[in-house]
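Thread title: Can someone regenerate the structure for this chain?

I was given the following input by a collaborator and told the matching structure tokens would be attached. They weren't. Posting the sequence so someone can regenerate them.
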Amino acid sequence: MKKPAIFSALLFAGSVLFTPLGHAALDISSPARSIVLAANGSVDFGDKFKKNQKDAVFADRFDFTTTVFSDIDMVVTSVSTSASNGMSLTGFGLYNAQGALVQNGHQLLSGIQDKWTLSSDMLAAGAYYFQVSGTLLSAGGAAFGANGYISAVPEPQTYAMLLAGLAGLGLRARRRGDVEGVPAAASLS
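Best answer:
Regenerated them for you:
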């Protein structure tokens, strides 16, 4: 073997031996939780993490079910004392029950305050979940909170019935002469 080849082999072996082994980050994800929609469609959820979990990661899941078509408008935030403390929110998404991504959130702020938004229109009735993911940046505790609305959207048939009802009321008022400037229907007597 030539000297340069031996030297290269030793260098490679030394780099493998003295390179710190990569370790997987501690996963501190909470078990999946169900969230309940308020009567007005408002919803809020979140999580808090204890101290001494620097570099730990999480992907928290929040399950919910809709029974009608729905519009969703959500915001998730985390506030820290500095950009290197607390947590960094790395993702916010809406998934169906089978785990397929329905709508990805949009990051608006990162640093002292992390802020993500998510909007989805005409979401079909069914089972879904929000997933919030992030990393703890320091040994101090941290928390995030989400709030918003999941509001029912009337089906097209509902709008059609509303318009038909309004038209019927308009015709009735016109026949009775209840509308100003419109003569009452002529009598047949």
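The CA atoms of residues 15 and 31 lie 40 Å apart.
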